């Protein structure tokens, strides 16, 4: 036998109490993984506190205030009385009908910047110039836009003079109850589609150009390329633009309404946000205005979720 086989075996190193030595690296790994899990929460905490403090908590207070009374009953709980008054008001019902009209016109408001972004992405002649021209209205104040279009759409304004030269009778763009809401919405779309255009262009940056090359090799027309390549590839972008455009239509048209029609003629251009301002700012009924604000929030929530669901099902069918 060799000397190595006769030598006694060395005992395993013992820990402080005579047991096995603790696995130090595993403890450090567990501590590191715990820190990694907590790090995102720590980074998100300031933003969450701001959202809760400045958004969610005021929303809760507003909903609670909508169940109280106005005037002599200020602070008294009145249940759903404000909501009954709200839906019994012809002006608010007109505002709701106009919301339905906006939802119907929403695809057009999204398709316009989407098509223009497609043409710019495909580098039509002058695409760099068009990018700046299309975005320029987005930097203008709604008050300025409204004042400009008040002059253009006046009964004796340039647009009616142009139509007269073509043999078409003048249109009372802002004085006809059946036309005014379309005029205001059209001006709003013109003034704001530049932001949606930028979002679409950002979405095109993620588009796989090889798909467009394959469509061109297969001889696909432009409508076929848009339907079968561009739309499925930009589903997320389209969802985002749909929701933000809808929110803009429902909450950012006050300036145009105030300058162009002041809710007229005969209340035909009322929208919920304008109705809220009238109740709060002119009629001094803050509780009723809170009820209208809550109704507007629920409308945006339901319509937004419905739009996302429809777009997701459409994307699933395309896949």
Automatic annotation (TrEMBL):
<feature type="transmembrane region" description="Helical">
    <location>
        <begin position="38"/>
        <end position="57"/>
    </location>
</feature>
<feature type="transmembrane region" description="Helical">
    <location>
        <begin position="134"/>
        <end position="155"/>
    </location>
</feature>
<dbReference type="GO" id="GO:0055085">
    <property type="term" value="P:transmembrane transport"/>
</dbReference>
<dbReference type="GO" id="GO:0005886">
    <property type="term" value="C:plasma membrane"/>
</dbReference>
<dbReference type="InterPro" id="IPR035906">
    <property type="entry name" value="MetI-like_sf"/>
</dbReference>
<keyword id="KW-0472">Membrane</keyword>
<feature type="transmembrane region" description="Helical">
    <location>
        <begin position="179"/>
        <end position="202"/>
    </location>
</feature>
<keyword id="KW-1133">Transmembrane helix</keyword>
<keyword id="KW-1003">Cell membrane</keyword>
<keyword id="KW-0813">Transport</keyword>
<dbReference type="InterPro" id="IPR000515">
    <property type="entry name" value="MetI-like"/>
</dbReference>
<dbReference type="InterPro" id="IPR051393">
    <property type="entry name" value="ABC_transporter_permease"/>
</dbReference>
<keyword id="KW-0812">Transmembrane</keyword>
<protein>
    <submittedName>
        <fullName>Sugar ABC transporter permease</fullName>
    </submittedName>
</protein>
<dbReference type="Pfam" id="PF00528">
    <property type="entry name" value="BPD_transp_1"/>
</dbReference>
<comment type="similarity">
    <text>Belongs to the binding-protein-dependent transport system permease family.</text>
</comment>
<feature type="domain" description="ABC transmembrane type-1">
    <location>
        <begin position="91"/>
        <end position="307"/>
    </location>
</feature>
<feature type="transmembrane region" description="Helical">
    <location>
        <begin position="287"/>
        <end position="311"/>
    </location>
</feature>
<feature type="transmembrane region" description="Helical">
    <location>
        <begin position="240"/>
        <end position="260"/>
    </location>
</feature>
<feature type="region of interest" description="Disordered">
    <location>
        <begin position="1"/>
        <end position="30"/>
    </location>
</feature>
<feature type="transmembrane region" description="Helical">
    <location>
        <begin position="99"/>
        <end position="122"/>
    </location>
</feature>
